[in-house]
Design a protein that fits this description.
With 49 residues, the protein is mainly alpha-helical. It has a domain of 26 residues. The protein is built from 1 helix and no strands. It is rod-shaped.
Length: 49
């Protein structure tokens, strides 16, 4: 009975950190790409206006 709860606690604990570790890695490059796109569009929009 002690092994069952331990296995159930270890499963969610390992699943949570893994899911949290994935978003930060994908968000970092996503934010950098969005900033670059905004910077490139901003200078193009300023002269156009």
């Amino acid at each position: 009975e002690t092994q069952q709860p331990i296995s159930t606690l270890t499963r969610p604990i390992i699943r949570k950190p893994r899911s949290l570790s994935v978003p930060p890695v994908i968000q970092q490059p996503f934010i950098q790409t969005t900033n670059q796109q905004i910077q490139q569009v901003t200078p193009t929009y300023i002269p156009s206006a």
